[in-house]
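Record passed on underneath.
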Amino acid sequence: MPTTPEEWLPLLTKKLDERQPRIAELRRYAKGDAPLPEMGRNLKASWEAFQRKARTDMAGTLCESMAGRIIPRAVTVGAQENTEVLAARRVWRNNRLDVVFDEAIYNAISVSVGYLIVGSRNGAPIITSEEPEMVITEPDPAQPWRALAALKAWRVERDGRDFAIVWANGVKQLFTRDWKRPTGGIRGEASDGWEAVEGGAESYVGEMPVFVLDNIHNMAEFEPHIDVIDRINLGKLQRLVITAMQAYKQRMISGAVAGKNEDGDDIDYSRTFEAAPGAIWELPEGVSVEELGGEDIRPLIDAEKADLRDFAMVTRTPIDVFIPDNQSAAGAQNTQKGEIQKAKKRIARFGAPMEAAILASLRILGLDTEETVHIQFENPEHVGLGEKMSAAAQARTAGKSLRWIDKHIMGMTPDEIATEEADLAEEQLSSAILIGAASGDANA
């Protein structure tokens, strides 16, 4: 087993390079740049442009729909207000963790894995979301969101250098090298040529500051169903081809049309029967023109919808995400249950590395708390305000505190709850003053 950053470097760079083609393919699908259907060599640019019209961003739509149900809102530390709570909220605010965590979650959904790295600047913790094109880890078998060793490699074009950091066994080592190619990024070429930077080694205390958000089965949400996406795009291409061909009606002439013009030359009927608006054709006796019938494209459209329903079924995504047809309220609710359950599983899965990143940030601040760090997410069921109010009234009748209702039913963050309590206290004070003044006027 390697122990030093120098020993881990070639292993991790090789692992990063081997993964690049798969990540690149998934990234293309997630960005709506799926491979062109029926792609072949030496195709004309006009045909490639036509093929692009056959692609629909099914993978990206799926990822956006799922990400819309996994929204981190706030962080809590223990059950009481204390120094750790206030510090965690500052870390959240200063790092804009709602955005950082959202980026890491989207990477995990769209390309199977996302990364969080915790560092410091002027003594303040910095949490960043890193793309899997530049970061890779050797996961801890017991807790896969933690790392035994980690690598980040990147390119700085203005310096003409590549850089890499390796974390291993309490040491963070910086490496560098010349560009392997004059242009382009680090992707796909991380192996070989590295040299340790003199004085570039630092020690870190505690666990590895690189945390992994790995999606279930280590796959992107759409990855098991890429064949369905390709089938949908191919069916759309075939429909577009038929539609385009039928835009130019094919005609045939029956009967004897061979003949000579006044000069004795063969008649050029391609000019005589030129298809143009307002054109009038003079046909010889016994000659007729027939127009070939068109192909009915409705079965192709129905087949495409059937494929979309299959895709929605196997990915457990509401069908109205892909086919916005009218549905009853009950039908829409039923189709959302699968996606909601998927979102809840991923919230439980992604929450652990996010909470570990917050805990590592608190340690940088010298706050090694034993309290439970918890990331608060929005309810993935997208409950309406009316339903929340009804549930809040029932919870209050059952004896729940206002703070519990604000947190668990209304989904408010700790800062929002504190503001709400301050506003309520101010309203109660104002009401008491008004009642006291009215009582004094009455006694007078």
User: Anything to note?
Assistant: DSSP finds twelve helices and twelve strands in the chain. The CA atoms of residues 235 and 303 lie 8 Å apart.
